[in-house]
Protein 1
Amino acid sequence: MHTDVLVIGGGNAALCAALTAAEAGARVLLLEAAPRLLRGGNSAHTRNLRCMHDAPQDVLVDAYPEEEFWQDLLKVTGGRTSEPLARLTIRASSTCRDWMRRHGVRFQPPLSGALHVARTNAFFMGGGKALVNAYYRSAERLGVQVRYETPVQRLEIEAGRFVAAHAGDERITADACVLAAGGFESNREWLSEAWGTNARGERPAEQFLIRGTRFNQGVLLRHLLEAHRADAIGDPTQAHMVAIDARAPLYDGGICTRIDCVSLGIVVNREALRFYDEGEDFWPKRYAIWGRLVAGQPGQIAWSVIDAKAAGRFMPPVFPGEVAQSLPELARRLGLDEATFMRTVDDYNRACQAGHFDHTTLDDCHTAGLQPPKTHWARPLDTPPYTAYALRPGVTFTYLGLKTDETAAVRFGDRPSDNLFVAGEMMAGNVLGQGYTAGVGMSIGTAFGRIAGAGAASAAHRARKENA
């Protein structure tokens, strides 16, 4: 079969591309690997996108100017980012909400409390599943043809130009194609291959859990990189990786498995030792480093330990924690060496400096003479009951992807294709070399999905003119 624009993928970036191409008058076919009930990829698990704004805007309070957004991104990536593509994403985030509303997305009023995101992030009413459903309804109205349970195994590419896609025994041709099929985070064999064996003889990736869809196997990504030598970007071990509840399911645990009390207590590893500053910065800026930190610990496991003073100050996870009336009892319940655990807690408690605790600011409650330090929100663990949550690394999406530029074109030997484009997780490594800050993945997917869709529609229009 033949279409003007073929979109491979079914999440936010793919839908933004399909909608944009359809708005431009192209006939669009979208292929989603998942069944209809599980459509939307990781986007179904999201809640918000990060938005630049110079003044209060509808659901966003105060201001979050371009330079502050850029500095936040620069900090979490450690400079491993393309500034032009990052700034393109940032600027696009300031103007996308009206377009999203036209396609049925609704936003909820600003949030208050400990998440610190009412100024920076716009939250979807009903979460990511509602956003995905709204986009699919809009796509249907625009005439986009959607086929579920249709994974694509390989592409035909000639001299850098897309020719056809193969889904099972079917060959589908198109004048242009957008790749938005996600990373390889659901492919545990590839994760294990990338992470290898550590100095303790462990294979860390075997302990990883996948926060999102099971359908992001990276089949097309590997095919593009190996069979067609498309230009690559990113480190295969880098990912949006969060510390989540160790009891979470292997796939599709989503947001409710995240543990958000890290900054309110201490985190210890299997040896009952702390290993990083729990109060380094506001949680939305630093939560995504903790998956990788736990991945580096023995057995890829750790415990977030709080006391009663933390109650009500964080989003409660779906599973209850391990609770004890004394710290020695808690150590025994966790299977940790009691003497070492008590020494760790006693050292921390003695190091806590009196200050004015305020979890909504970078307060002056810190430790002194302790390694690693706790920079903010350091209060002694001294008020029972005590609670601990077991942590495992939870992978959201991987950063190895296809190199691109401001046109979203896939590149071969540093030459951009004129009819093959990429968006979403398959190119997020251009902006995210490491680290993460809340909502930026949706910002990248929305910006480059729309760019890719417009580029594909233009390529299809050129092809029609040439063939007329």
Protein 2
Amino acid sequence: MNPDLSKLQPYPFEKLAKLKGEVTPPDNLEHIALSIGEPKHPAPEFVLDTLRTELQRVENYPTTKGLPELNQTIASWLERRFSLESVDPVSQVIPVNGTREAIFAFTQAAVNRCQYRPLVVSPNPFYQIYEGAAYLSGAEPHFLPCLEENGFNPDFDAVPEEIWHRCQLLFVCTPGNPTGSTLKLEDFQKLIELADKYDFTLASDECYSEIFVESAEPPMGLLEACAKLGRHDYKRCVVFHSLSKRSNLPGLRSGFIAGDAELLKPFLLYRTYHGCAMPVHTQLASIAAWNDEAHVEQNRAEYTQKFSAVLDILSPVLDVKQTEASFYLWPKTPINEETFAQQLFAQQNVTVLPGSYLSRTVDGINPGDNRIRMALVASTSECIEAAKRIRSFVESL
């Protein structure tokens, strides 16, 4: 077997299951899970209707490139959402089976393992696929800490030049998981200039881009920054988007990669061998979802309501702040984060994720120490109940 498989660490939820297995929660309280970022709002009924209507399309082989009408729908959505002059649906868009699959696959195609000690650079904390994809591509992961003093974004100015020389692929996640932080135009401009100077690919994971407080400005995306900088070919830049969070369709496994046509052409070749074409009925349902914004606005309204209610309850007892976007809270804990998560489960039957499970210790610092990630994905009533139990637990410490 590939020896690099031995470098893969257990997924955060494997660690969480072991931690919870050491205690027993109270029988008189219903379990509330705030640990997994799986949307629990209802899927749009019109998307389900399309799936039912088009189910007979399982009789057809899908193409890796995708239906022209889906690619055009995605290109049009990108143009509307990010004020782009034009996106070529033929050369600058590829449908994918969710961002997780595409991020992993793109890394395999993007890394030149013949280069001296190639690096895949990513934020820390991070989506664990970045790390696993790096190892299995023949590269090493390199983590940039996302600390509160820098707005929970990496301090790109502090990265040594030697790291940029070895970097082949830089992942950013905006809005961030788990911090909810976003990158601004000046951040993207700096990264694009670095990509040009050191010849690496800039990949932006933007699957939370449509979840933000209703009154706030929509988060900027990498392609939007490219357009503002007059870079309409999106050179060296790709973005990943998904219907999982935007449309409450995590099981549909539908998203896309878009950007530099010179990067997507060889990636499409890779995918024809990889065997990951999106089923036709899924593509048709995806067209329906990308073409509708009403359900997205309703989704945002529900998250805004939950954030407001939960923060009102928790702010007096925890150091917790409204994130810029996404559906996460990233509060500090008054005790060790693993102990906090375990005892909260044992006493209140509420599950949260220790922040250290989403991070790596580099130079003695783990950005997730004494923090937990709370995913406000349950119903509003459940989130309020969970917040009350968390407050009661904190007050008992």
Protein 3
Amino acid sequence: MKTFILTIAGGGSTYTPGIVKSLLMRKDQFKLEELRMYDIDAERQNKVAVIVKEVVKEMDPSLKLVLTTDPEEAFKDADFVFAQMRVGKYKMRELDEKIPLKYDVVGQETCGPGGMAYGLRTIFPMIELIDFVEKYAKKTCWIVNYSNPASIVAEAIRRLRPNSRIMNICDMPVGVMRNMAAILGVAREELTVDYFGLNHFGWFTKVYVNGEDKLPVLREHARVHGLLTEDMSKVDVQHSDPSWIKTYKNIKYLVDMFPEYIPNPYMQYYLLSDHIVANTNKERTRANEVMEGREKRLFDAVDQYLATGEMNKDAFYVGVHGLFIVDVAISLAFDLRKRFLVIVENKGAIKNLPDDAMVEIPAYITSNGPEPVRVGEIPTFYKGLIEQQLAAEKLLVDAALENSYEKALMAFTMNKTVKSAFQAKQILDDLIEANKEYWPELR
């Protein structure tokens, strides 16, 4: 049986135990010879590894587990790299969210000014990671990348490392499919969807179950309930936090006004920005919810284990985040041609968008990479929104590569969550101050 060396870059993430468990649940199909955790923060990674070691001991005790902060040790002869870096960690995410809110602009991790701040932190560390992989790993190695904000990161990679073997993916559409499946009373794997857009900026146009389009059924449900079931904790513990309940509920407003398609939930930040700001606690954002929730649960479980030897297995959760990245890797490894929503260079797939746009659409995942499904032309309303968002993302990457304050200001002004250039400048200047340690210099 073929075996693989796999490295998780960003090993100190609280998602890592769930990803490892997802991998080991599939060991009969995707056998690991060696699993490596790589992070620049050794202390945090060592804490997360306490849980990971228990998962490995329980599920595959023969598996070699390596913890390292050394790139050569991490990537030497690797077959796969799962990238999930968070540059600046939750301390910087909190600022990404709270600085825009100070000016009554959406504060969010990947959308609006906060997402652009995160993008400027992530572009060059991601390029560095690709270079490490290309230097040390097998020439056939695939990077499967979850690092956010995915559209901005993918655009930078397209320009700076166009030949890299990288699959840019996001679990948000898969999370929506999980909710859709629960509403329809079927398994997520039974759904086949059509979708177009950019990452965190797109629409479901068809949702097939056994060849029948269930979008009309889902649309009627969404108009009343959003994409929620009666008890979301039974669907996904992780996405039953108050902020996620609100996010999935807000879809009802969008579907009621624009019933043609079902939007990615993150479209709320662009199309309902005044409503989002008015209903946000500016002192306690999603970053605080995560730090006080998922992060605290995991690290409390580590402390409990070290003190008592007892492991709280409810401290982490195997959700679509872990399941999806493993599904993609298996399709790459064995040329399965499974159909997933991924981020690819457009190249005519969406006929009336630029060829060089990094779009999120269905593709068949082969051992040579994605084979995108052609979407055709999209209607004017969606095309116009996408082009505005795409322009903001491209200008931001320009700003990073050219060290251009003016291009950054253009990007912030162009973003639909921002109301004026005055507002864009205030937010940008505050974020420059907050990100001195991380951003390229803007002149």
